[in-house]
Amino acid sequence: MTATTKEFFVRERLTEARDARGITQSYLAKCLQRSPGTISNWERGDQAPEPASLDQIVRTLGIPVAYFLRLMPNHGKNAIFFRSLANATMRARLKEKARMRWLQHISLTLQQTLDFPTVNFHNLIERGAYKQLKHDDLENIAADMRSHWRLGEGPIPNMVLVAENAGVVIGIDEVGSTKIDGQGNWSDYDNRPYILLARDKYTAFRRQMDIAHELAHLILHHGIDENELAQNFDLIEDQAKYWASAFLLPHRSFPAEIYSLSLDGFVALKKRWKVSIGAMIMRARNLEILSDAAAQRLWKFRATRGWHNREPFDFPSETPVDEPRLLRRSIEMIVDNEIRSKGDLLQSDICLGAADIEMMASLPANFFMESAAVVLFEPKLKESGRIGQSASILPLRRPN
Known about the structure:
By secondary structure, the protein is mainly α.
């Protein structure tokens, strides 16, 4: 009788891992030298891989075997919000959805040991009510959240801290495409909001706006599922864009600081408000500070200067990019207090690839690489009776 892993193999984990690696069933079958039908049977639960095949899967996907033995948590049917459904390929979206689940997997594992910040959102919009929201409503909701989080009306220097202090778990991922900026999701399992940010557009100003945009979804569109997201995508995205801009650039304080409606005038405000020039032009137009014609001229001048790809101060060497801290500090705390070793966290607890955890938790590269124990050699004096004794010399024999 052929040995099997059916009693303990969790088939959904294989699908999740394959999607997270961005590969198809056919490609995985080729790597394992099996038929695509066999992979399909494993993922449907009709069959389970033999122990030798499971070892192959582990090596191919770069994930510890314990990962495939973990039951899947029920995160619910809340939509995972993407900035663009049209531009991103289906394979890219499947990959990032699976990576969001990996972020939540890391978080849930760490929450077994540590207490994370309490989720501090209030007045979430009831499901479906977003359809009636107008721009004035979005302005009021943005101002209300600023007041609730005690942010005042001035510039927000660090949106990462704002979100993490409100109980959001933020992770980073190398998407490999500029068509996906980030994604947000509410998990029913721990009733906690999550944001996974793309590292591909790596500027401080992009990160500020990306977090504000995902916060907008978490507040305005709480509870909608994937079908409703697809049906009302344009409205949902437009609302998130408007709310994020209203949150970062309040309608009273931001206009009061605009001293010149020129491109150079907005450049002067950029570092203080931590918002891109393009976003400030759009906000000024929405608030009717700029006319359509004036806004179009600024867009044209901006493109002429080559700023449509990279604006002044965008290089991280000019304006450092704020990194999430919650997951990194949690892992460091567990290791530093010797609650679990790095190896235990990697192989037995989180059970994901080292590079995946390091990226998502903003840990240094090779953090999980255990350094070898080096014993310091101390020279010793020879025993007095042996000092000066000659060593025996063995004759070197010529080989036969």
